[in-house]
Amino acid sequence: MSILALDQGTTSSRAILFGDDMAPGRSHQLEFPQHFPRSGWVEHDPADIWRTTLESAGAALAGESAAAIGITNQRETVVVWDEDGRPIHNAIVWQDRRTAGLCRTLRAEGLEEEITARTGLIIDPYFSATKLAWLLEHVDGAREQAEAGKLRFGTVDSWLIWNLTEGRVHATDATNACRTMLYDIHKGAWDEDICARLGIPLSMLPDVRDSDGDFGETTLLGGTIPLRGVAGDQQAATLGQACFAPGMLKSTYGTGCFALLNTGGEAVTSEHRLLTTIAYRLAGQTTYALEGSIFIAGAVVQWLRDGLKIIDAAPDAQPLAETADEGHRLTLVPAFTGLGAPHWAPEARGAIFGLTRNSGPAEFARAALESVGFQTADLMSAMKADWPQMGETVLRVDGGMTASDWTMQFLSDILGAPVDRPQVQETTALGAAWLAGQAIGAWPGPEGFSDAWQLDRRFEPQMEEGARSKRLTEWRDAVARTIGG
Ligand code: G3P
Q1: How confident is the model at residue 254 (pLDDT cuts 50, 70, 90)?
Q2: Count: domains in the chain
Q3: Does the residue 435 lie in any domain?
Q4: Model's pTM, two decimal places?
Q5: Nearest of 47, 57, 44, 43 to residue 13 by alpha carbon
Q6: Which residues line ligand 1 (CB under 6 A)?
Q7: How confident is the model over 313-324, as a mean pLDDT?
Q8: Which band of pLDDT confidence, cut at 50, 70 and 90, is reported for residue 11?
């Protein structure tokens, strides 16, 4: 019995058909346009999101049927549509910074502590709440329509569920709800006070279900297929990496990097500006995670290619970095769009330190790849400080950048910890497929699925402790100067 995973990401929509053996089979991927109406604004056309999802699903199925569908998606991105399913505006994407001013106002009102205590998040434009408030404020007639119960809000999963079920189901799962900054992660309910402060009627919010809950069925892909798994993409990758036990940790290297540490039934409050988030909610049981979000990871390689033009293709970065002069270190702080966790410095911009007349493409490439390791090391230290019982841990990695052995070796060196790369790299889609597959009883539960997880390669730290701490000190000094300056 095949399971279809729909992975709706920031730049493309993908569909992957998984077989009985839980291995990825036929897949299809479609990119769609990004809209940047103003500096710092990022939008998607919701129709593009839906069209590319439906088309890629059809292509992956290629006439076959699936026993169930699992959905995973870019998180935090906001769509608002009317009763006829017509979006009232483009989707406002998670990367969009237009609501920085409203976030400053909320902080000035002294709301940060309470909002963090309830939602696990810090006040930042990254999350859905202020984007939704912006739409209600700026789209003609939106507030009146919302108050009359005529508009629906959803993250991308809800938008897809609504369309797949032809308007029968308006729902989301707990992992997506917890990224809105409107959801009380302890009570497991929308927070009426935060909604009231932002003028968001409760009636427009989706029903929040378990990640392996029942999200209706679709008849748009041949036959009737149940929608039985939904999770935000980083949480789905946590599942796909089988990080079920407290203390297990994964990091996904796409455009950005998102590290999630499973903390079990305990919602750990961060003292180091990490996020407290829901890792998954299965059969009513919530498992929490600490999350560190870095905005620039793979994007730094795109910068080498498209900005500096010193490589032709992403895989060229590693061989170039390997030719760098051993005695000539550059430190790159890739704060191209500010810095995320644990610094949260939206106004910071990138900087490079240590330039000499001998600094060339190879040294830039090495500094770029190393910056990903350094940023991950900052997240790991924050996690250890927040949750000392984390102890010695192994980092499970996935995403495009993990194909580079050199980058993974440096990551292990600078963390001083083992780094495990799995055989199946499609961990995000696999996590969504697992939710749906186990929900219908076709795939094993957490234990059996953990047993099936297979290692491709383990990277063990080889750097001497003295060298490691020297490099980390240089990095932290560079970050302090970047944020300060
Ligand atoms: O929080 C944003 C994250 O969910 C986006 O992931 O893979 O679509 O860039 P991705």
Answers
A1: confident
A2: 2
A3: no
A4: 0.92
A5: 57
A6: 9-10, 74-76, 94, 232-234, 254-255
A7: 94
A8: confident
